[in-house]
Amino acid sequence: MPNLEHPAYPADALLHLESLVPCRESQVSMLLSIFGERQQFSFPSVFIYGHTSSGKTYVMQTLLNTLQLPHVFVNCVEYFTSRLLLEEILIQLQSSSSETEQTSHVPCDTVNDFVRLFKQAVVSRGLQDQTLYIVLDRAEQLREMEANILPAFLRLQELTDSNVTVVLLSEIVWELFRPNVGCFDPLTLYFPDYSIGHLQKILSRNHPPEYTADFYAAYINILLGVFYMVCRDLKELRHLAALNFSKYCEPVVRGEANERDTRKLWKNIEPHLKKAMQTVYLREISSSQWERLQHDDGEPGQLKGLSAHTHMELPYYSKFLLIAAYLASYNPVRTDKRFFLKHHGKIRKTNFMKKHEKTSNHLLGPKPFPLDRLLAILYSIVDNRVAPTANIFSQITSLVTLQLLSMIGQNDQLEGPRYKCTVSLDFIRAIAR
């Protein structure tokens, strides 16, 4: 029995739509109930949010294209100013008309011009009697535009007196959008992350025709068992699945194992998945280079996961700040005087360190440290004198943004911010070299 049912759309179209959006049937059903029939007025604005790769853009494009609903789809990163955005909406609206030829470009500098030209375009396309959908992907970029752009889109149905619905797609919550002066709140809809079962179902649909579905599903199960804790991105997992499947099949191709011999297949693929772990989200090498490295049985050291040339892009003092942060995270506070002062006095030999030799600080993980300790270590490891300028503090903020450092606690604590270094020892060694 199909999950998607709506009296306004044919059953075969809904059945086809359901096959295209696996594990998102409840969200599509909710959208269909919000949109209603073609001639009905829909909600003026809908806000859809969720983490990256949760299917927001794909579901909206598939829904609008499959049901052939009149729409305009714009990425706000590509059209990053209000003029570019408004003009692109008008261009798509005018160019999609099959009855008239492409009209000349009309500049649109203000929201008033946009409202006037939008009404003309709706009349020329004959869309007065059905809902037009304007989808703005990566809508968080609207916050960087003029202050009247976001409120205008939220009330576009009222301003144009037309049957139009604006759909905002974003990775952040609506509370970070709402202007201080207040505006019309949209209807919010949340897209949750795909669970491991959903990812298993979606990725297993791409199995090669020369192998059985059960064989490919077993491979996806192994892949998710390795990568699910560090990567939930469906696009990245699909790329990894396509990249490493040939290695998984090698024992079967050579006749050393059959498709059900899971143990031999796992032993063959395990070292290659460990090497692939070094490049999750980084894409430092192309797919062809990765396949060549696998074919040549290259060592993991040949694959520079988060290594030399990545670090070369960091500013000069950012490298020293990262080294100082690593030293502050993994060295006890009582050793600072011994390591970083030239005249630290005599060191009495005690058995204190011997009690803790068995437990490595790297096994215990990074410890948080205050900002003043980070700067003190920085001043001691840099040869020339470093002034505590705004440039240094902005580079610390950049390292936090790049997730090379993490901030512990709130910014308004009386004792000041505390940080923790999140990079590995190999990363720091590459920077130090």
UniProtKB/TrEMBL annotation:
Q: What is this protein called?
A: Origin recognition complex subunit 5
Every Orc1-like AAA ATPase domain range = 21-167
Instruction: Please name one Pfam family that this protein belongs to.
Output: ORC5_C
Record-stated family: Belongs to the ORC5 family.
- Subcellular localization(s) per the UniProt record: Nucleus
Q: Which InterPro entries does this entry report, sorted A to Z?
A: AAA_16, ORC5, ORC5_C, ORC5_lid, P-loop_NTPase
Q: What does the record note on quaternary structure? A: Component of ORC, a complex composed of at least 6 subunits: ORC1, ORC2, ORC3, ORC4, ORC5 and ORC6. ORC is regulated in a cell-cycle dependent manner. It is sequentially assembled at the exit from anaphase of mitosis and disassembled as cells enter S phase.
Species name for this entry? Answer: Campylorhamphus procurvoides
UniProt keyword Nucleus present: yes
What keywords appear on the UniProt entry? ATP-binding, DNA replication, Nucleotide-binding, Nucleus
For the keyword NAD, the answer is no
Domain Origin recognition complex subunit 5 C-terminal: from-to ranges: 314-433
Domain ORC5 lid, by residue range, is 216-283
Q: What does this protein do?
A: Component of the origin recognition complex (ORC) that binds origins of replication. DNA-binding is ATP-dependent. The specific DNA sequences that define origins of replication have not been identified yet. ORC is required to assemble the pre-replication complex necessary to initiate DNA replication.
GO BP annotation list: DNA replication initiation
GO CC terms: nuclear origin of replication recognition complex
Q: Which parts pass through the membrane?
A: none
Q: Which gene encodes it?
A: Orc5
Single GO molecular-function term?
DNA replication origin binding
